[in-house]
Amino acid sequence: MSEFEFIRFCKTGSDERLENLPEVLGIRNVSIKEIEKHKVNYILDFLGWWDEEYHFTQEEALKDEKYEKVGFFGYVLHEYISEDIKSILTLLLTGHRHQANALLRRVIEYTLYSVCLDLLSRFGTAKYNLLEIYWFPREWKKLLRGQRLSEREIDRKLDRLYQLNKKENETRQEFRKRFFREGDEADFLVLMYKLICKSCAERMSHLIVEPIEIEDVSSDEDLVEPNFKYPKAPKCEYCQKNVADALVFNVLEMSTLFKILKNLLEDRVVNAISNLEKTYSKLSNYFIHFATEIEPEAEHAEFEINNENVNLWGFDGVTYVLRNLSFILCDYFILLKNKFEIDDTVQHCSARRGGFSSFEI
């Protein structure tokens, strides 16, 4: 069963899908325990809801022929996230909970990264899309694996921008918050790319480099002007000597991504972002690396996350993560629909208002 077929399967009736799930997952000899059934349905409901909301918006938006694509999240949902959730269910139902948490960490990363890129690139619909490279899956995966900007590098960049753009009595911390809140696509392009000169580019041929080119644009609508000031003759960030004439593609670390999302989304979902930030850290520290602290035979993996005791072992951890991701995705869908002036006929906010209690749990 392909990932598309699995998402459609998630939208079938609760009893029917519980009966057929073991066969769909290729584990026919495994029976779903009574205590697990409501949690399995809860997980399937979330995946089906994400897909339904995204496709509703996409179909409405693409009625306007000037749009070719709506969001990077849709691609990642179908190609990666749905397959990961399917695999997580298989692992949990066969008792491989430790391995399931390794995938759960990736679900957080892929979901939030694609949402953030969509917000920064205005859902990829700008006529002159500065973040176009992140729409290509092969290059996107290569960037995630290799060229990353550390928190230290981001701090240095923001400190330099602070000197050029600070307001009277504005602290560095206040400026950083303002940059994340007010920066547009061009500003984040500068933040996410490193400047390089021809000499360093030739010396470090393994880097993905794009020459800086000033192109004529047909109208002011096509031109994306940054909201902040930058050096007029910026130096190469590698040798710190020559004038830069090219860009090196990079991706942001997750720690930076969490900071950006806290400023881009509504205050009421900041708590969910913070929950996921701490959960991502716990999954990274306890379940991913070789020297793990959680034994495979453990029944619980209790952690304190924002004054709440959370069991990140088994179905409890998955439902906790998906619920928090859905608070964020709910805001994402609202912004997406506002972008394309689509009426909210699905009423997805009612699902969030009750903490997604209407789902099967």
Strands of the widest sheet, in order across it, are 2-4-3
The coarse overall form would be globular
| Helical content band | 55-70%
> In DSSP terms, counting alpha (H) and pi (I) runs of 4 or more, how many helices?
14
Distance between the termini: 26 Å
Q: What class would the helix/strand composition place it in?
A: mainly alpha
Average pLDDT taken over every residue:
84
Major sheet, described briefly?
3 strands, antiparallel
Oligomer: single chain
Radius of gyration: 22 Å
Strand residue percentage: 5-15%
Order of helices and strands: HHHHHHEHHHEHEEEHHEEHH
Uncertain segments? none
Number of strands: 7
Would you give an account of this structure?
The protein has 361 residues and is mainly alpha-helical. Helices cover 57% and strands 6% of the residues. The protein contains 14 helices and seven strands. It has helices at residues 3-10, 14-25, 34-61, 72-93, 97-120, 137-145, 151-165, 172-182, 185-192, 198-203, 254-264, 270-288, 315-339, 348-353; strands spanning 148-149, 194-196, 209-211, 246-248, 251-252, 302-305, 308-311. The strands form three sheets. It has a three-stranded antiparallel beta sheet. Strand 6 (302-305) and strand 7 (308-311) form a beta hairpin. Helix 4 (72-93) runs antiparallel to helix 5. The two termini are 26 Å apart. The relative contact order is 0.14. The mean pLDDT is 84.
In short:
With 361 residues, the protein is mainly alpha-helical. It contains 14 helices and seven strands. Helices cover 57% and strands 6% of the residues.
